[in-house]
Predict the 3D structure of the following.
Amino acid sequence: MRRKILAGNWKMNLTPLEARQLIRALRAAIDPEAAALARDRDVLVAPPAVSLAAAAQELAGSNIALAAQNMHYEDQGAFTGEVSAPMLKALGATHVILGHSERRHLFGESDELINRKVRAAVKHRLVPILCVGETQQEHDAGKTTEVILRQTRSGLEGLDGRAAARAIIAYEPVWAIGTGRTATPAQASLVHGTIREIVAERFGTECAGAVRVLYGGSVTPDNVDGLIASHDIDGALVGGASLKADSFARIVRTRAA
Ligand code: PGA
């Protein structure tokens, strides 16, 4: 059985002080059930880089893991404005979101660049959360499978089976992100199945059975149960609804997990 994952991607929101406040409120809401929740699910939050240290302090003693939203593939050097895997690890991050569609489409990140980051994350024992997903245009043109194939294959290139099995893949259709339009559980399941087939082809069925594939894109307390009930959907990567303690707490408590 794959453990479910409920992950909050805060994007460019919340200063260190605000991050502390949100985590305190979230812990107040879920700590009483923490032991039960920890049995079958992983919870993580991804604050912006400047709020990671404050978040790590507030998360101490909880079962909530800390993720970063991006990183550079080099360990150090003349890369103004960037942060590296060793820096994120020093702040307590255990996971890193890579290839988010906002990175791909607003900041021009290529499949090759994202793959370098994935490999650097693995090298430093940060768990990569590789995001893949088609745009509205690609969706309408019937290119979903083609895009998912390319982004998944390229994202995992150069990994060995063990690293691939530990990696997390997030299917986030770009047309569903921040739009209030969610993929139906059936639509998402279909793509999740495709992702698992791609992993099986490259790394074998055992690895494909272990890799966790999350859905992201307008996940809310109202639709999370239906999505997560699907066998192929191993959890959710949540943007907007992770910024309020009560809504994210409700998502974390999803009954279907
Ligand atoms: P959303 O964002 O939940 O606000 O749609 C999801 C994401 O981009 O990870």
User: Anything to note?
Assistant: Residues 16 and 51 are 4 Å apart (CA to CA). The radius of gyration is 17 Å. The pocket of 2-phosphoglycolic acid is lined by residues 9, 172, 177-178, 216-219, 237-241 (CB under 6 Å). The domain at 4-252 is CATH 3.20.20.70 (TIM Barrel).
